[in-house]
Amino acid sequence: MTAERPRHEAADVADGRRGHTPPAGALLVVGDVVTDVVARPRGPLATGTDTVATIRTVPGGAGANVACWAARDDRVEVRLLGRVGTDAAVWHERELVARGVRARLVVDEEAPTATVICLVDADAAAERTFLTDSGASLRLSPDDWSDALLDGVARLHLSGYLLFSEPSRALVTVALAAARARGVPVSLDPASAGFLVELGVDRFLALAEGVDVLLPSRDEACLLTGLPDPADAAAKLSHHVPLVVAKQGVEGALVARSGTVIAHVPAVPATPRDTTGAGDAFTGAFLAALLAGAGAEEAAAEGCRAGASAVERVGGRPPVRG
């Protein structure tokens, strides 16, 4: 299943300045496409009986969410490679196209679409807990890859969830090699501190070899370095990856290069309803701005704005394009 849209006319942006031709090429995101069931109880969970809650079924997945937030920037063409089951393939394709993403969805005849139950706290922070059935999403494999996917691509982004199954880890290796051969820079979002513990830090860093931008959360950065302070963690990670942008939630973002934090970008104030996908929103907006010619700090500011917008909505996606 493939859905395409014409490229937008790009705005004149280069090196972060208006009035110049923008960099040629698209953003290709490879990652998970998920059906999210978002449940927000109206009070504490009552064990063994009913708890009144607001429940919504919405499209999600870290990879798909990143693509949708990136596609909000009309200067950037965004493509997505993902794998879904027959149960929800048409719906997911429609939802991605409606948000401006050129979607190439491999339809799995055996496994259902990945499903995540998001339990959102009833308190003001609206933090969430995930119950994850990865389904078809982690069955993405080298058989689903073609080097032709990189035709016209200026940046490849990989969802960290791909590292948590053998078939999709193999795909990451193939995609990274193809990107290196073409000189296409690659970014990676670690995706899940819980899954990182299972994978192992050394194994993750080995798999991330060759990535030029790493976008961890605070917890992921600290886990990957063993350091309690997120600034120290971001600085240390930037010895492994040229550019590290550590997402700090309500504390904004840290930008680090060559072992030094070079910027602390403040968060944008927001009233959270659901924090699901806030990090994906940051990543998508950051990558789009970077591809359009912004510097890392300016791109991180765009990411913070998108993250603030995301937490004020239910689900991990931006609104459908008007």
What is the CATH level 1 assignment?
Answer: Alpha Beta
Q: In one word, what is the shape?
A: globular
Which spans of ≥5 residues are poorly predicted at pLDDT below 50? 2-23
Helix content: 25-40%
For the largest beta-sheet, the strand count, sense and barrel status come to: 10 strands, mixed
Assembly annotation: single chain
Q: What is the count of DSSP helices, taking H or I runs of 4+ residues? A: 9
Percent in strands: 25-35%
Mean pLDDT: 89
Q: How widely separated are the two ends?
A: 24 Å
Number of E-state strands: 16
At the fourth CATH level, what is the homologous superfamily?
Ribokinase
Question: How many distinct domains?
Answer: 1
Q: What name does CATH use for the topology?
A: UDP-N-acetylmuramoyl-L-alanine:D-glutamate ligase
Helices and strands: which structural class?
Answer: alpha/beta
Instruction: Report the CATH architecture.
Output: 3-Layer(aba) Sandwich
Order of helices and strands: EEEEEEHEHEEEEHEHHEHHEEEHH
- Order of strands, widest sheet: 1-8-7-4-11-12-13-14-15-16
Protein name: Sugar kinase
GO molecular function, one term: kinase activity
Keywords: Kinase, Transferase
